[in-house]
Design goal:
The complex is a heterodimer of chains A (about 130) and B (about 475). Chain A is globular. In chain A, strand 1 and strand 2 (about 15-20) form a beta hairpin. The two termini of chain A are about 20 Å apart. In chain A, the strands form two sheets. In chain A, strands 1-2-3-9-8-5 form a six-stranded antiparallel sheet. Chain A has a three-stranded antiparallel sheet with strand order 4-6-7, with no helix packed on it. Chain A is of the alpha+beta class and about 130 residues long. Chain A has helices spanning about 30-35, 80-85, 90, 115-125, and strands at about 5-10, 15-20, 20-25, 35-40, 50, 55-60, 65-70, 75-80, 100-105. Chain B is α/β, with parallel strands linked by helices and about 475 residues long. Chain B folds into three domains: about 5-60, no CATH class; about 85-340, Type I PLP-dependent aspartate aminotransferase-like (Major domain) (Aspartate Aminotransferase, domain 2, 3-Layer(aba) Sandwich), CATH 3.40.640.10; about 345-470, Aspartate Aminotransferase, domain 1, CATH 3.90.1150.10. Chain B has helices at about 30-35, 50-60, 85-90, 90-95, 105-125, 135-155, 170-175, 195-200, 225-235, 325-360, 390-400, 430-450, 450-455, 465-470; strands spanning about 130, 160-165, 180-185, 205-210, 235-240, 260-265, 285, 300, 305-310, 365-370, 380, 410, 420, 480, 480-484. A seven-stranded mixed sheet of chain B has the order 1-7-6-5-4-2-3, with helices on both faces. In chain B, strand 2 (about 160-165), helix 7 (about 170-175) and strand 3 form a beta-alpha-beta unit. In chain B, helix 3 (about 85-90) packs antiparallel against helix 10 (about 325-360), helix 5 runs parallel beside helix 10 (about 325-360) and helix 6 (about 135-155) packs parallel to helix 7. Classes of the chains: A alpha+beta (about 130), B alpha/beta (about 475). At the A-B interface, loops of A face helix 14 of B.
């Protein structure tokens, strides 16, 4: 279910780093908690994000939630498709529903995140 | 049931509901050319009077209101609005007075406002009250503006506001609009503010803590005095969201708990109409320290006469036209005076008793995430129904079939699948039992016949609405047959 190559935050964001570019999205657990997503507010390309800074807003039928940067860096791309198809966050949270790409400032920050096995354990704790 | 057409769809050329009489005053002062530009409003429906009456009467019968039955919308305090409030606000002397009347001719109006300020100050234990803000969210924002004005006056630059994770969403919005950064404080296992997290987050950069008491889990913040001390020790202010004041009114006072600024919702605690029946009113109460910054004008009593005081150099200024939602404030005054001190205490007592009666009756049938004692509302969740594939939405929709308004759903955010139930003091034992029986039957249905819930409601004008599609592709207006 959760890709091995991703790193995960406690706030249920994932980041997938290739080279120095990290792709960021929310996890399947997060999208299930949110319910049907109806609107995604995206940051502008070039925005500089600190670790754990809010970079966007996800509005679902249930709630409006911030999304936080799991690592710091500069936004290099945003998923414009989400403007017309916010449902991608529900249908394909780990792939087509990616939210932003950032130029990762420091690889060291990735160490703070969870690998897949740890994240799955973390979820089990939450679902009790 | 047949779908009620839009009023535009029953429009027919040549029909008319009402014809105005010809003007009986001379029409030659030049206004004619400027004002009478439109002979006809384009697209205005052409219908007979009886069609208008039937259309809106039929629509009104698909509505649900607190005059019809229990409305247990948590945190909203949908209590009954006594009709005497309307009688008072409808008195010609009040209703027909103009907001620009000379102050000497509306002394009675000012006295009513002044009295309401005094009573709310006494009830909240605050030193001064402004009735100006139009609703709760504006009251909140004014509260934070007062804090900001005071800090600026002192030359202090504080950038952060602390807000517990159980707070109403309007709290971070108010802080953000006033230019503050928001830092979230986690709740502890009891569902209250975690003292260690607060102590760790509190610094001389923190302008205020925004706390709701009882909080949105319906739990009294029993450490409130300690919480206030921690915030005050670093020079911060304690803002209290008074949305849940119904649990405290007449019993204890935020001012005595160390609160520096509070807003009230007259349309919750003080029985003025709520929602579409509003407008609301969100008075703000403050401690002596914040009083100089209150919005203008303030009502003063000088030598037995009331006047409006505009000369307040430190005031944040005007926050709305004239003086608050006057007729709404009158309704709250009528409510306070008809109850008196003893009656107000009883409101809090019965509100808390009713909520606990529901909690005890439904415990076991629905999951309760926090075991702490409940005040005026209790927050269940759909955790037990989940294994049958049933969500809080399905439970809420099924309640409609039992002629009950659903409780608040999916809030507070720290309870996944929340069902937040606030019966208020309005409901009798009989009506509470009716609600409990419906919830009990639904818990059984969730096990035995989950599909019944998934397709609910079954007995309504429209069946399950596609809320997702409505939010993703909203149809916002109707123009000549096209919905766009």
């Amino acid at each position: 279910m959760y890709p091995d190559s991703f790193s995960y935050s406690k706030d249920h964001e994932w980041v997938h780093v290739e080279g120095d570019i990290g792709t960021i999205g929310i996890t399947d657990f997060a999208q299930k908690q949110l319910g049907d997503v109806v609107y995604v507010e995206l940051p502008e390309v070039g925005t500089k994000l600190e670790y754990h800074q809010s970079f966007g807003v996800i509005e679902s039928v249930k709630a409006v939630s911030d999304v936080y940067a799991p690592v710091s860096g500069e936004v290099t791309a945003v998923n414009e498709e989400l403007n017309d198809a916010p449902e991608l966050l529900n249908e394909s949270p780990h792939d087509k529903g990616w939210i932003i790409k950032i130029k990762v400032k420091s690889g060291a920050e990735l160490e703070k995140l969870m690998p897949v096995n740890e994240y799955e354990k973390y979820l089990e704790g939450l679902e009790d | 049931m047949i779908r009620e057409p839009l009023i535009f769809e029953i429009s027919e050329e040549g029909k008319k509901a009402f014809t105005f009489p010809k003007p009986d005053v001379p029409d030659n002062d030049g206004i004619e050319q400027n004002v009478r530009l439109r002979k006809e409003i384009h697209g205005f429906p052409k219908v007979a009077e009886i069609e208008v009456v039937r259309h809106f009467t039929r629509l009104s019968k698909t509505n649900y209101c607190v005059d019809e039955g229990i409305y247990p919308l948590g945190s909203c305090t949908m209590k009954y609005n006594p009709k005497i409030n309307e009688v008072v606000a409808g008195l010609a002397e009040f209703r027909n007075s103009h907001p620009l009347s000379p102050v000497s001719t509306v002394q009675g109006n000012l006295e009513a406002l002044f009295t309401t300020e005094q009573l709310l100050a006494e009830i909240t234990g605050m030193d001064a009250v402004s009735l100006q803000p139009s609703a709760g969210a504006q009251g909140e924002m004014v509260g934070i503006m007062l804090v900001k004005a005071c800090l600026e006056d002192r030359g202090e630059k504080r950038t952060t506001v602390l807000i517990p994770d159980s707070a109403h969403g309007t709290n971070p919005s108010s802080a953000h609009l006033c230019g503050f950064k928001v830092r979230e404080i986690k709740s502890n296992q009891f569902g209250t503010v975690d003292i260690d997290s607060l102590t760790e987050a509190m610094s001389e950069d923190v302008a205020a803590l925004m706390v709701t008491n009882p909080n949105t889990l319906g739990i009294f913040e029993w450490d409130i005095k300690k919480i206030a001390d921690i915030v005050h020790s670093k020079g911060g202010f304690v803002y209290m969201d008074g949305a849940n004041m119904n649990a405290l009114v007449g019993r204890c006072r935020p001012g005595d708990m160390g609160v520096d600024v509070i807003h009230l919702n007259l349309h919750k605690t003080f029985s003025t109409p709520h929602g579409g029946g509003g407008p609301g009113a969100g008075p703000v109460g403050v401690s002596r320290t914040l009083e100089p910054y209150l919005p203008v004008p303030l009502i003063r009593k000088v030598d037995g006469a009331f006047r409006l005081d505009e000369d307040r150099p430190k005031s944040i200024g005007r926050v709305r036209g004239f003086y608050g939602n006057f007729l709404v404030i009158l309704k709250a005054l009528a409510y306070i005076l008809t109850h008196g001190p003893k009656g107000l205490r009883e409101i809090a007592d019965i509100a808390v008793l009713n909520s606990n009666y529901i909690r005890k009756s439904l415990e076991g049938l629905y999951h309760l995430k926090y075991a702490s004692p409940s005040m005026h509302e209790c927050v269940f969740s759909d955790a037990l129904q989940k294994k049958h594939g049933i969500s809080n939405l399905d439970i809420a929709k099924r309640l409609i079939d039992y002629d009950v308004h659903p409780p608040t759903m999916s809030f507070p955010l720290i309870v996944p699948g929340a069902l937040m139930i606030e019966p208020t003091e309005t409901e009798s034992r009989r009506d509470l039992d009716f609600f409990i029986e419906a919830m009990t039957a639904i818990a059984r249905e969730a096990e035995e016949n989950p599909n019944l819930l998934k397709q609910a409601p079954h007995h309504t004008y429209v069946r399950r609405l596609d809320e997702t599609a409505a939010a993703r592709q909203p149809i916002l207006k109707w123009t000549n047959g096209d919905r766009t």
